[in-house]
Structure prediction request, 438 residues.
Amino acid sequence: MRSQDRTHSPTVDWPAWQRFLLALAGLGVALLLALEATVLRETGRFPLAIAAAVTALALAAAVAVGTVPYLARRTVLSRLMIRIEYEFTRAGLVYVVLMFSIALAAVNTGNNLLHLILAVLLAGVLVSGVVSRLTLQGLEIELDLPEHIFARRPAPARLTLHNNKRVFASFAVSLASPRARRTSTTPPKRQVVAEPLFWDYLPSQSAQARRLELTFPERGRYAQDGFRLATRFPFGLLVKARLAPLHRELIVLPAIEPTAEFYEVLPLVSGEVETPAKGRGHDLYAIRDYQASDAARHVDWKATARSQRLKVREFTREDERRVILVLDAHLASTEPVQRARFEKAVDLCACLAWHFYEIGAEMQFVTQGSETRMGPSSTVIYPALEHMALVEPSADAGLLGRLPPSAPGFRIILTGRPRGSISSGLWSTSYIVFFDSL
Prediction:
């Protein structure tokens, strides 16, 4: 088949054209009202002249505030410029009211001094806009975070603000997370840096770092979609701000804080896992009489000397510290009480995983939709904790039914199921913790 080239005609930005034509109409009406105000003033009808002049200024201000920035954002030139947001401060509102009052008096009286004062006020607005824009330009942000972060535990971080401008310094710059836009369907994202920071002076071609101590109250995924850089420099009339791009995502691991439930479960679990059995490990199991098949390196010479009979040592199995942590995330209901018990179960599972990591056991983690391989706990612990950080209540009710009857280690199962729903095969090879007991 022959491919056909399709040429797309440029689309017309009808909303922008409508706003532009409406602005032209508004400025035309404002010009007519200004001329009418002059005629009314010369004929002695001052109240009508004042009303016409005020209406003309209001229309011009509405066009300047509502239309000019809107059209500027849609031009090709706007792609080369940083996007600036601004809002009036209380001092700025007083300044604008004073400027309009002087403008109204200058138009109605024709006093040259008032025109000079108005020009100075307008020049102040222009200088404020140029200087504040220069302050916000050329700024970049760098955020350094530790590799692993746990919930409810302070984590050190470093945030660096770079001023890449060659000549101009930056003054009175505040940094904060962007304002969350809440919608009915999408909850606001959890930010990495919540507290605002402030730099009073940042020279050109320099950088200043701030050390932070971040604490995250909950496990899960956190995202930082840039920072909001703002300044009131130089006169404090406007708060100008722009969004500095910086996308960072991190997974906050569950809290490793032993609770009362952990101290209740740990002795029972340890008793099940560490049941002694002879094998080829390193921990002493028993001392018995020598047999012909025993190796000479296992002879216990002290026991042989005491009993005057040849004695050898037996050791525990190396595989008796192989643990499979199973977190059954199925919940029958999503009530707040059940959800709180689920979070306690996740924290308990994380504490157990960390305990077996500290004693050097082999470990595997299993939950709905994800699992790790059986291996040394030093290689399994952080992937398992990341799974626990992101696990949510699941509608999958068949996890326990898919577990094999025999396993290459001792299973510890945390589940929200009722006690009578567990098969007898799991009872004999597993230690089960019910959410209701937490």
Observations:
- The chain has a mean pLDDT of 81.
- The chain has four domains: 14-82+91-123, 139-253, 260-276+320-437, 278-316.
- Residues 14-42 form the longest helix (29 residues).
